[in-house]
Design a protein that fits this description.
Elements: H1 3-32, H2 34-53, H3 55-72, H4 76-105, H5 115-128, H6 141-149, H7 173-181, H8 186-191, H9 195-210, H10 214-239, H11 242-257, H12 260-264, H13 266-291, H14 295-301, H15 303-312, H16 319-329, H17 334-347, H18 350-366, H19 376-392, H20 398-402, H21 405-409, H22 417-453
Helix pairs in contact: 1-2, 1-11, 1-15, 2-11, 3-9, 3-10, 3-17, 4-13, 4-18, 4-19, 4-22, 5-6, 13-14, 13-22, 15-16, 15-22, 16-17, 17-22, 18-19, 18-22
Length: 454
């Protein structure tokens, strides 16, 4: 009777060791052999492209087939309310954790008097070649940085030094969001990796297919499901190269970013790790209670998508591995995983909500706000704003997404600009943590929805 569990543990260890060794090897190469890491970086980029190659077709096929059958069975209305409720509860919880842990630990307090931070930001600016947008004060960039981080001044109300704010859009944010959501050209949306637009079209197509006569619908959905299975088979071949791909990706990232910011931002990194572990512990316990699988087993069965998320900093790259883990590891229903997981990855940015809440507290404390300066209402605005910022940032390229921090800070009167410059320095280090939260959170949401809507 003990042979089967022992064999399962050995199989798990056999698959895990190469992945962990690859990540550790990548860190070692990037740290002590930067030249080698730089050489390996392009191969890591190629492997990431292989992983992402099938993601958009997988999202489209999964949503169309699952939603088509859901509509045909007249279950859409009730399910939609529950889906939205589960997603929003998760995002609000993550934002509350980021706000609470960030404030209690004083994530930004120590950096207010750090001239070293100012010097590092100056170096980052000169390396990137980005210009300074004048503020009319006549102060040099050196004076503005030193004044800010020695606590003798505040940044100008205009643009931050070293940060190039995106061009002003006079349209309401909702109009801009909807413009990004609705594809003018579906092929262009696929080519531009516009996940939101592809999801929007897939939802419309899936709903419409649910109203097609049964014979035609079943034939069409059968073709879509065959396409989906074929794409997963391709991904399973690519996963065989995962250890080599992770080695190249991690080595390239560490070699490019270096570790010079770690000492200055060590508290930010540690607090980011603390919030990540807190949310992941909650997710683990939730799956344990819903599926009856022990906490260690939960982590073991979801290890592959979590490691892919951590190493690639891409939630979408982990979707195929997460689908396999949820269906084969946790025993969830195929049709539920195919619908809820892609939907969550694009409409439930729980990791972004955590990131924006922690970042907002970081910027508030960087500006020296005392505990008494923020009321309970301010904290509520920070939590709600972090969720809205996460939703608004979906589909935006990396640096542009950081400017959504203004959505969180503007209601409480804190300018975000210099904080964003600081976050540009530390984001590559902490982003893998919040990507893991995003993947784990959506795996948890899918598990809950499978239980109560299955």
């Amino acid at each position: 009777m003990s042979a089967a569990p022992a064999q399962g543990r050995w199989e798990s260890l056999r698959r895990l060791v190469p992945i962990v060794a690859a990540v550790a090897g990548g860190v070692a190469i990037g740290t002590w052999a930067e030249g080698v890491g730089s050489v390996l970086a392009p191969f890591g980029t190629l492997y990431l492209s292989l992983l992402l190659m099938c993601v958009i077709p997988i999202i489209g096929a999964a949503v169309v087939s699952s939603l088509g059958r859901l509509v045909a069975n007249h279950k859409l209305g009730r399910n939609l309310v529950v889906i939205v409720l589960v997603f929003w509860i998760g995002m609000l919880m993550a934002a509350a954790i980021g706000t609470g842990v960030g404030w209690i630990t004083g994530v930004g307090n120590d950096l207010r008097t750090s001239p070293v931070l100012g010097e590092l930001l100056l170096e980052m600016e000169s390396t990137s070649g980005e210009g300074i947008v004048g503020d009319g004060s006549g102060a040099t960039r050196d004076e503005r940085y030193v004044e800010l981080f020695e606590g003798r001044g505040t940044e100008p109300a205009g643009a931050a030094p070293g940060a190039q704010q995106p061009a002003e859009d006079d349209r309401p944010r909702l109009v801009t969001y909807l413009d990004n959501l609705i594809p003018r050209n579906l092929i262009e949306a696929y080519l531009d990796d516009n996940y939101l637009a592809v999801l929007f079209f897939s939802i419309l197509l899936g709903v419409a297919m649910g109203f097609v006569p049964a014979a035609t619908r079943d034939l069409a959905l059968g073709v879509v499901e065959a396409l989906f299975d074929s794409l997963l088979r391709i991904i399973s071949w690519i996963i065989y190269l995962l250890p080599a791909g992770l080695l190249c990706i991690v080595a390239g990232q560490v070699a490019a970013g270096g570790l010079e910011f770690v000492s200055v931002f060590r508290k930010v990194i540690l607090v980011g790790l603390a919030t990540t572990l807190t949310t992941m512990a909650i997710f683990t316990v939730t799956i344990w209670r819903v599926r009856g699988i022990g906490p260690l087993q939960v982590l073991r069965r979801l290890r592959e998508p979590l490691l892919v998320a951590f190493a690639t900093s891409s939630s979408f790259a982990s979707i195929p591995a997460a689908m396999v883990a949820l269906k084969e590891g946790l025993g969830l229903k195929r049709e539920n995983v195919n619908l809820f997981l892609p939907l969550g990855m694009t409409m439930n940015p729980i990791g972004s909500a955590l990131f924006f809440s922690l970042s907002a507290i970081f910027v508030v404390q960087l500006h020296g706000a005392a505990g008494s300066a923020l009321s309970l209402g301010h904290f509520f605005l920070l939590i709600l704003g972090s969720v809205l910022a996460g939703l608004a940032a979906m589909g935006l390229p990396g640096v542009s997404a950081l400017w959504m921090l203004g959505l969180v800070l503007e209601p409480i009167g804190v300018p975000p600009e210099v904080g964003i410059v600081a976050l540009l320095a530390v984001a590559p280090i902490i982003d893998p943590l919040f990507t893991m939260v995003n993947v784990f959170g959506n795996c948890t949401a899918t598990t809950i929805l499978d239980r109560y809507l299955g």
